[in-house]
Every structure is written in C-alpha cells, then in structure tokens.
Design a protein that fits this description.
Layout (H helix, E strand, L loop, with lengths): L17 H31 L1 H9 L7 H28 L3 H5 L8 H12 L1 H13 L7 H21 L5 H35 L2 H15 L6 H18 L2 H23 L15 H22 L8
Length: 314
Amino acid sequence: MIKDPIKDIKPYQTDIHPLLQLLLLFFFLIFVPGIGYFVAKGISTMLYGAKTWTDVGTFNIANPQVKNGLWILQIVSTTIPLFAVPVLFARFIVRDTSTYLKSTFSFPPVLFVLIFSIMLFSSPVMEVLVNINQKLTLPAPLKAIEDLMRAMEQQAQKATEAMLSMKNIGDLLFAILVVGLLTAIAEEFLFRGCIQTIFVKWTGNIHAAIWITAIAFSAFHMEFFSFLPRVALGVFFGYFVAWSGSVWTSVWAHFLNNGSAVLITYLYQHKLINLNPDDQHVFNYGAYVFSLIFILILLYIYRNIARKKPMFDF
C-alpha cells in the first residue's frame, strides 16, 4: 500500500546541509523554550507569587493557583516556542516556507472525512500498541534508567491531571483549544513541516523520513511507556502530509487525537460516560483485526484521492 513513490521531491532553496539544518533547529528548540521558561516564571510569579511558582515545580495541586501556573508554563514555554521555531526557521534560515511548512490548503476536502474515520477506527490498534508498550522493560543493567523514566512519566501525569481538572464547559473549551488545536498546529509545523522535510532531503527517501520523524516525535514527548502508539500516530501524520502535500491534514488528525482525549476525560470526570480514559482493555481480538484491516483500506483510499489516482490503482 505504501510502496509506491510519493509526490516528487521538490528542489530546495537552501544550500545548508540537512545535518546542519537539524542542529540549528535543535539549538533553537533548546534556546527559545528556555527563554519561554523564564518568561513563564516571571508571569506566574507576578500574578500569583513566588510560592505558587515553587508549587508548580512540585505539582502541589493543594495550591489552587498551581493549575493556572501550569497552563502559563505550558503555553509560554512550550506551545508558543514550538510554533515560533519552525516558522522562523523556515522563513529566515532556509528561506523556503512553502516547502518546510507545507501550509497550503490545496487538497481535496474529503481527506478530512477520511482522516476522521482513520483516527476513529484506529483506537483498537492503538490499544494493542499501548498494552505491548506497557510490558516492555529495559535490560537489568538499565533498570535505573527505567525507574527514572517511570518517575518522570508519573510526574508528567500529575501535571496533566492538574491541568485537565475541568469544572465546567469553559475549562473544557480552553483545554481543547490549547491541548487540541494549538499543540497540534505547533507540533505538526515542527515535525511534519520542518523535521520531516529535513530528513527527506537528507535521506532522499520519503518513507525513511516519515518513520525517522515519527520516532523523533515520540521520543520528544519523553514518555517511554507510550512510545509505540505515538510512533504509529507519527507515521499516520507523516503519510497524511506526504500524500496530500499539506500540513493541515496532520494538524486535523493531531487535533482529533488530542481533542477527543480531552473530551473523554471531561465526560468521565462529570460521570457522563463510564469509559475510563486510562482503561486500555476496552476492545477484543476481533476488534483489533477489524481495526487494522479497515484503517489500511482507508489509508489506501486516502492515498489515491490525495494523489488523484484511480481508486483501484494497484
């Protein structure tokens, strides 16, 4: 299904070696969020006091202002920098925004419907990957590293739970806006825009670029025990962009993934549904098989429509 050549790789407007491009991008991804961290610290301290900032660092949710401090930290030190870095990189470093950002809307709108269906029916496959991932352990000599990763994920989970403690519709809409939409735009411009493009140039192979970028995307989140499902998501996002030529296809998919998680969390918190968002044993083996086959069919249809090929062109 994915062995056919993708759209022709367009000539690039920069002579900067892709390795140097990657190093420059990596530098900005450290420098700009670092500035954002201190800006967030200043804003939080000014609004809520130094004690609140200390409590943000320890996830002391007993302080009612910690939730606001965490949101400030998220938006100012992560969301905004992750959007600004690829945009500025494409505009001023490589001077080729169309190739590196792929912000065109020139693609069939029906792709949005197909992406919605793919994301909807991929849930059982993702559950399988989550369960496999949870059983993975590092070799005994690396147990200290494994324990550290588990501790880091537990801390990240505390922050997420605090931020996604939604009391009303306003909290829900705000979380969907930031976690769903803005995060999707920022991360997709960075990964499927700049980074995937750099690896296409470096390897000359779109498939290699998609998989390498997906692995980098998952590693970036520093959550080892959800590494495999996030790689799979990254692969989906990568092919959505490669076949359509537009980053907005992956933004839509990313938004659906994040936004639905926020919505389910809200509904569960308010006892409107019984589905625990942390439950990873919802489906059976039949659902796993059906999910895999169906999303492969949908991906095949997506590819042909995006590339304007006959529906049954093998």
